[in-house]
Amino acid sequence: MRFLLICFFFVISCHLFSQGFRLRGVIRNEQTRLPIENVNLKVQKSTLGSATDKEGRFILSLDRIPCIVTISCIGYHQISLEIADIVNKTVEIYLSPKVQELDAVTISDHKATVLYKDEDFSVLDYEILEENLLLIVFRYQLKRAELVLLTRDGDTLDVSKAPEVPALELFKDVFGNVHYLSRKGKAYQCYYNPALGKLMFPYACPSDSLKTIMGQFLFSMNDRLYFQENNPDRFTTRIGFYSKDQGKRYARNIHDAKAASQYYDDKRFENPFPWSRDTASLDASSHFRELFFKPKSTATLVKIGRHRIAVFNFTEDNLEMLDANGVIIREIPIDFHKEDTLTFLGAIAQSLFPTNSWKWGKEIIVDDPFENVYAVFKKTGMIQLQKVNLETGKLISGVELPFPNPEKIRIYKGSVYFLYKGTGENEKKKLFRMPL
Question: Which of these three, 58, 80, 95, is where a domain ends?
Fold first, then answer.
């Protein structure tokens, strides 16, 4: 009888072993409690594994228990779990984000070089046209403007007369097309024909219509045109998109309720004596309050490559990473934008006696081909660009531009471009390039 019982349990255990097991669960961020996509699960001493979907869910097949499962994801600490039993419900697993603390931001010592070196001409404007640089240059007056196409190393591809003068600026739309705008109100699309080696201007339209229609959008993705609307009070940002199928849709509303409440409470008590006729003092007080407290930066929407969108939510101190459909796939805490809170009098004092420290410049610049993002910091006219790690939200490297008050800063394929005019009487505005 004992022998028969042993054989019976052996057969039952073998049958269960041959069936295998399935572990179902969801993996979340330990801090935000949001699901994590693309987490890898690997059964040790086995070829079995799985990965989480957009909602952080997974189904992992097991050929035996107990076993050890290793769970890993970029930007998170790896963990190993011992699976001793299988439950019928979905299990929740939490991963802790890695925080890469740096003692200081590494600043590049690369030097800026002039790309267009003709000393008789000044650069009015520039844009990146496909893989090259398109410049508006002029000698003495805008009626003598020319268009110059350079490689990113500064080699000349073509020089063309402006299709219409006086010149105004270059405008790049959300589809990457560059348009030459004249002061007479016309916009000419710029196209370079490499076979002929010539700049061409195939289409023209009214410049105000072009900027009114295209200027409201930030970028295009998945047949959608994304936009960001800031309320006049600067305390609310609305993010959305326009598509042929759905029309205009709002996807996100970010409101800084605390800052708005403080501002309007202060404004309410700005004049405690309504019968007072000291309008000069009231105007001065209102001006300072508008200057130091009203201009807020609640959020910034940017495109990362072809398939990702980033919302820098400065109100809630989060970097929200979205997929091409606008669905949040990851949230990361950020704090590089935070500054010491100043009182009203403290803000006035700082404007009169500025401190010698870098301040968040409320601007984000994207190197789209390399999918890198840079935060802008300012100090007495100088500019510092600091790269943001999109996995941790921390600053990891940076470069300080060598001249004060540079204009039109662009970053493309690992280099920063900007315009600068020296202080000398005969100085011309030049286009500079500096490796990051």
Answer: 95
